Amino acid sequence: MRRLLCTAAAATAAALALTACGTTQPATDDKAEGTSDQPITLTDASGEKVKLDGPAKKVVGTEWNVVEDLVSLGVDPVGVADVKGYKTWNTAAPLKNSPKDIGTRGEPSTDTIAALNPDLIVATSDLPPAAVKQLRKVAPVLELRPADASAPLDRMTGNLDLIAKATGTTERAEKLKKDFDAKLAEGRKALKDDGLDGTEYAFADGYVTGNQVSIRPYTSGSLIGAVNEELGLKNAWKVKGDKSYGLGATDVEGLTKLGDVEFAYIGSDGDKNSNPFAGVLTKDKVWTSLPFVKKDNVHRLPDGIWMFGGTTSMSEYVDSVVKALTK
Question: What is the pTM of this model?
């Protein structure tokens, strides 16, 4: 299931916007990266010192964004929260092994994790402090702030760097960042060459609970919103996003404020309630009267691009946007 349904983060209106705890500054390392026989000391987002005997090999990830980073760095996690959900929502960085399912992202099982005897647990501040405290009794915990609406891309790459330092994969992290920068430049050029620079663009996701449709705008403070702006697109949303994920909240009537835009979304065939735009809304008079719906400027982007992921997911997102918008 998606981010809003599976974390312990506090919800705002309609349970759509998310919050996260932790520091606002990127975590730093206190020592230069060591070789495999040298200890590593890091400072995580909570300010805790994380001491490792060497690069972590047996790693558990309690959130899908950190799991994506691990996989992208060539580290196969031994434990993953909600494995089925990860496989549904994140196909950009598919699992190459068969990790133990440690429970939900909001409530990972401490006993299950302890049985894995990990070198490191990578968690996020979406978990309650009490849960993180329990995990620290099992193994060293690298707690990351998963998102920051004031600097979404910096937060994404900063978390990647810290995980890389903990796992001895910094060279791979540098390549991932370099490739992502190249992908952004490539996408920006493709859109500009097609006359799409400055295009009004609105990205959202939505879900159905009972008979109620909720829509979640991705503002400029969201990770996807930041990527869109790097591509030269103009974010059409006027709603305010939360301070961590940059997510807003609206309903179908709220879409009437968008005007004539390019509208894009990601759903999942593996989650039947995640795609109201091609489902219940097709019979809704407000939806069918919207200018971008009438002009067929609604784009469903491919399943499996995790909207809160890392450089791998965001690179696939760039490709999908360029393909959807260009002629």
Answer: 0.88
